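ok here's Glutamate receptor 1-like:
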Amino acid sequence: MQVMDDRWEAEVVEYGAINITGFRIVDSSRKHVRDFLEGWKRLDPSQSAGAGRDSISAQAALMYDAVSVLVEAFNKILRKKPDNFKNINSRSGRGQLYNNGSKILDCNHSSGRVNPWEHGDKISRYLRKVFIKLYRV
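and the structure:
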């Protein structure tokens, strides 16, 4: 399957026995999307890859949605318990982050055992609860 990022305003046309079907994942008629695209168009393409155009790729739109889900999940966690991540600190000289005495991320798998971060399950639950409002055209 191929993602078509180009705008396609024409009606569906049948060429012989080939049926071309598609859908648009970026609804440029929504105010939120129009505002984003206006800001995107004003960005300097040399500073932000793909910027300066009046549209974004499907991949960029999906990335934007993914980041929005992460932001919403973390905001909900912090609204419920604002001091949830307050104990995170960095021990100088080691470049590793700790929380309540345990390593947050331990990428050394030589022991054959991975210690999950104490907030990992909570973050996972909140990510699954994020609701993205879909609009029908």
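+1. Strands lie at 89-91, 96-99, 102-103.
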